[in-house]
Design a protein that fits this description.
Strand order of the largest sheet: 16-15-14-17-26-19-27-24
Structural class: alpha+beta
Bound molecules: 2-acetamido-2-deoxy-beta-D-glucopyranose
Helix content: 25-40%
Distance between the termini: 102 Å
CATH architecture of the largest domain: Alpha-Beta Complex
Strand content: 15-25%
Subcellular location: Endoplasmic reticulum membrane; Rough endoplasmic reticulum
Pfam families: 2OG-FeII_Oxy, GT_PLOD, OGFOD2-like
Keywords: Dioxygenase, Endoplasmic reticulum, Glycoprotein, Iron, Membrane, Metal-binding, Oxidoreductase, Signal, Vitamin C
Membrane topology: Peripheral membrane protein
Largest sheet: 8 strands, mixed
Protein name: procollagen-lysine 5-dioxygenase
CATH topology of the largest domain: Spore Coat Polysaccharide Biosynthesis Protein SpsA, Chain A
Shape: elongated
CATH superfamily of the largest domain: Spore Coat Polysaccharide Biosynthesis Protein SpsA, Chain A
Length: about 725
């Protein structure tokens, strides 16, 4: 007799064959599917089949697909031809039940026992999947039997039946590989005689087969403690075979992030560690890092610094930078001069090349594609702040064709991926989007769109993605073009939120007409502003009482970084119009200053709003701590930087301030930048002669705290002063 199974069967093993002979009910089911390529969708199908222990035979692998582009037009006949050939050997297996399904866009949500039980309940020899839409020949609609409730039309993505009957259907095939399979089955089904003799019906109420086309609104995820299912809310059924037919592939991808056991509330991500690679056991792969600076971007020096301090051997990294902004040439020049030898190679394409964003991205990707030693292409936009130094390693270890780390706008729901697409291919919010962004659901997510930062395997660029242009397509943004191309190639794109990777900064409203423009970013990018400008030990004021009281009621605490001090001084010197310490002062109400300093007001450089915000965010909390019971309004009219130098004004005579309290931040270093200086409080005969750069004094302005600025004897001393709550 002929062997029941052909040797190319997946999971063909002697034990399985033995179990088969013992005739456990479930093992009479054989799944047949046609796949000519091992796409990502195919692997997902096999994973779900293996999870439920289906016996699957794959037909057509290594064959060239000649069945047409079934996504767009008719076709698929090759599937019937292959099935016909396979069924010849199985035709006389009367107890064998054949389940034939698509595989690229299909997952199992339940096991073989359940399918067999439901099939028995249907009480027919052959059962086809059903859907509400008729395809491909609408004229056949009238020939279908009426159904009182349920889906009326046949879909050939799923068929279950006794082997002899399936054989009698597919043996009728005598058409071409690119003829339509669904039309073929439909014609047999709508023929009343055949329908009766072959004892065929449709799964009208989605007991077994759920086609998603036209039915996305009918289904929901149903979370169990172990498995996740799809529930059809119209028929109250739990279909077993979930098919992303038509343009519902992205929705199937969403379901596949959970079903059958990928993620649930109890256990989180179940398959995140499948197929991972262990970098500690491996030579570090070569990575080409493509950096794209397409608009003026705040904190670019910090971006490059993070790149440099990434935990990855630099000799394995090549750098390609596309800079579209003349403004940033100085930053890149500086980084290049200091670090060009740190990397394996370093190539910059500047604004003079006048490349479009799409062209530049094509160029970066192609550099990796053409270089056989390039194992990965890591594309990063300059607005991505990777605060996790392990990011590149973690992405490589996850071992996907395309994967990005989740990055979000600080404190916002804005991120670098979309969980769903609208019909016209733009953003749509998926049910799980917010939970993923907020990391309430943690895992590796198959998504339809990602941007800003992602890793692509070099081998993918040299195989599935070997065309040289993926970024220029119609009028789409380059990233949308890339993602659409990947979707159409059936390449899954993933975003991982298994770790905190970093954030996306805002490039909106970045005014580059100042000298140190990042100082102005306190509103737009507060987290990056704080990291760049607020002293490392500032928070210790609150956690460890990290502050001093050198004179009664004079508090002294760290607030600014060296950079903040330097940039503020540079900004003032760049502006250059120091007041000269004269009594007449047009900048203030009344026009007369009794104790004038040589200064520039924050308002003069357009920094008053930002400065007041700084006071409210960073000074007010200190006030509350040291002057307990006093709630500052955080309001100040007089905010300025003072310059003391022996050549101009060296000191300030004793005075009160027109403030409830005053802050006075040292902006440079005694002994390095100047000599002398300091502050003396008369009532207490108390002087502070060694101010520390970046540290602020805070003291009451009137009555008790008559004070003077001690002479600066050499060099230039700068302080920033605010009279708060005047
Ligand atoms: C599949 O088979 C394995 C080994 O026999 C068994 O441990 C597992 O529980 C089965 N899976 C399901 C979903 O029945
Ligand atoms: C179809 O087959 C079932 C048994 O599988 C039988 O009970 C039923 O009567 C058949 N229906 C028709 C219309 O022949
Ligand atoms: C840059 O390219 C654009 C479009 O490709 C073109 O309109 C523009 O004139 C070019 N500019 C320069 C300076 O070459
Ligand atoms: C940018 O800053 C300059 C100088 O403060 C100011 O004159 C200009 O209006 C600002 N531009 C925008 C768009 O805010
Ligand atoms: C913060 O405090 C620690 C420990 O006192 C010190 O080592 C470090 O230098 C301080 N940081 C700065 C920026 O001064
Ligand atoms: C102020 O203190 C200095 C030393 O710190 C001392 O020499 C001086 O006599 C004091 N003056 C008064 C008025 O107490
Ligand atoms: C003043 O400072 C300069 C350098 O900043 C130094 O060379 C010089 O010796 C100093 N003069 C005095 C009198 O300390």
């Amino acid at each position: 007799s002929r062997p029941l199974y052909s040797p190319d069967m997946i999971s063909f093993t002697l034990p399985i064959l033995l179990k088969f002979c013992l005739l456990s009910f479930s093992e009479k089911l054989l799944v047949l599917t046609v796949a000519t390529e091992e796409t990502d969708g195919f692997h997902r199908f096999i994973r779900s089949a293996n999870y439920f222990n289906y016996t699957v035979k794959v037909l057509g692998m290594e064959e060239t697909w000649k069945g047409g582009d079934v996504g767009r037009s008719i076709g698929g006949g090759q599937k019937v031809r292959l099935l016909k050939e396979a069924m010849e050997a199985l035709a006389d297996q009367e107890d064998l039940i054949i389940l034939t399904v698509d595989s690229y866009d299909l997952i199992f949500a339940g096991g073989p026992e359940e399918i067999l039980r439901k099939f028995q309940q249907a009480n027919h020899k052959v059962l086809f999947a059903a859907e509400a839409l008729i395809w491909p020949d609408k004229r056949l609609a009238d020939k279908y039997p009426l159904v009182r409730s349920g889906k009326r039309y046949l879909n050939s993505g799923g068929i279950i039946g006794y082997a002899p009957y399936i054989n009698r259907i597919v043996s009728q095939w005598n058409l071409h590989d690119n003829d339509d399979d669904q039309l073929f089955y439909t014609k047999i089904y709508v023929d009343p005689l055949q329908r009766q003799t072959l004892n065929m019906t449709l799964d009208h109420k989605c007991q077994i087969f759920q086609n998603l086309n036209g039915a996305v609104d009918e289904v929901l995820l149903k979370f169990g403690t172990d498995r996740v299912r799809v529930r059809n809310t119209v028929y109250d059924s739990l279909p077993v075979v979930i098919h992303g037919n038509g343009n519902t592939k992205m929705y199937l991808n969403y379901l596949g992030n959970y079903v059958p056991n990928a993620w649930n509330y109890e256990h989180g991500c179940r398959d995140c560690d499948d197929d991972v690679v262990d970098l500690s056991q491996l030579k570090y792969p070569n990575v080409l890092v493509g950096v794209f600076i397409e608009q003026p971007t705040p904190f670019l020096p910090e971006f490059f610094q993070r790149l440099l301090t990434m935990d990855y051997p630099k000799d394995k990294l090549k750098l390609f930078v596309h800079n579209n902004e003349v403004y940033h040439e100085k930053h890149i020049q500086k980084f290049w001069e200091e670090n060009r030898n740190a990397f394996n190679s370093f190539k910059v394409v500047g604004p003079e090349e006048n490349l479009s964003q799409g062209e530049a991205r094509n160029m970066g990707m192609d550099l990796c594609r053409k270089d056989a030693t390039c194992n990965y292409y890591f594309s990063m936009d300059s607005d991505v702040m990777l605060t996790n130094r392990q990011t590149l390693k973690l992405l490589i270890e996850q071992n996907r064709k395309i994967i990005g780390p989740l990055v979000t706008r600080h404190g916002k729901l804005w991120s670098n991926f979309w969980g769903a697409l609208s019909l016209d291919g733009y953003y749509a919010r998926s049910e799980d989007y917010v939970d993923i962004v907020q990391r309430k659901r943690v895992g590796v997510w198959n998504i339809p769109y990602m941007a800003h930062v992602y890793l692509v395997k070099g081998s993918v660029l040299r195989n599935e993605m070997k065309e040289r242009n993926y970024f220029v397509l119609e009028k789409l943004d380059p990233d949308m073009a890339l993602c659409r191309n990947a979707r159409e190639l059936g390449i899954f794109m993933y975003i991982t939120n298994r770790h905190d990777f970093g954030r996306l900064i805002s490039t909106a409203n970045y005014n580059i007409s100042h000298y140190n423009n990042d100082l102005w970013q306190i509103f737009e990018n507060p987290a990056d502003w704080r990291e760049k400008y607020i002293h490392q030990n500032y928070t210790r004021i609150f956690t460890e009482n990290y502050l001093e009281e050198p004179c009664p009621d004079v508090y002294w605490f760290p607030v600014f970084t060296e950079k903040a001090c330097d940039e503020l001084v540079e900004e003032m010197e760049h502006y250059g119009s120091w007041s000269g310490g004269k009594h007449e002062d047009k900048r203030i109400a009344g026009g007369y200053e009794t104790v004038p300093t040589d200064d520039i007001h924050m308002k003069q450089i357009g920094f008053d709003k930002e400065w007041l915000h700084f006071i409210r965010e960073f000074i007010s909390p200190v006030t509350l701590k040291v002057f307990s019971g006093y709630y500052t309004k955080g309001y100040a009219i007089m905010n300025f930087v003072v310059k003391y130098t022996p050549e101009r004004q060296a000191y300030l005579r004793p005075h009160h301030d027109s403030s409830t309290f005053t802050i006075n931040i040292a902006l440079n270093n005694k002994d390095r930048d100047f000599q002398g200086g300091g502050c003396r409080f008369h009532r207490y005969n108390c002087s502070i002669e060694s101010p520390r750069k970046g540290w602020s004094f805070m003291h009451p302005g009137r009555l008790t705290h008559l004070h003077e600025g001690l002479p600066t004897t050499n060099g230039t001393r700068y302080i920033a002063v605010s009279f708060i709550d005047p």
